[in-house]
Amino acid sequence: MKQSDNRIRTKIRWLLALFIFGLVMSGLTAFPLETELEILSSILGIDPALPSSDYSGLQHWISLVAAGIHETYAKYPFMAYGTDWLAFAHLVIAVVFIGPFRDPVRNSWVITFGIIACFGVIPLALIAGAIRQIPLYWRLIDCSFGIFGILPLWLVRKNIAMLESIEKENGQ
What we know:
By secondary structure, the chain is mainly α. It has 7 helices and no strands. It is about 80% helix and about 0% strand. The longest helix has about 35 residues, at about 135-170.
């Protein structure tokens, strides 16, 4: 393996490590939603005893979501199981990216899968978010996860193409 092969593989691994880290963090933070909303509410100066209608903008939205999660979990704790599965799915998807981390050329299909999934975030957030009455600014934040996910994967895809080219030249 040449020096340029190693440099390209190192770039690919760093980009994939960043992407995997993002997926793992997204997964882990989906478990303690109620606690996270309590912390965020405290930071934003939201009093949980007050109705969400006392707030506007982001404070209103976070207050409403926190109240909804709190009431739902109090009455129907099994509903949190849905976000547990969401969290688990993020962790499982992160594991899939170990394949291209180890052997990028052989597992380049995983990168294509990731790019397609990132593109899919955008219509899901815009369409389902509108149906579920999620504020536009929050849907745009959700869209940003797809956009920021595409960036490292696109760079990985470019680097895999360079690696494939080098391997073909060397008859590997």
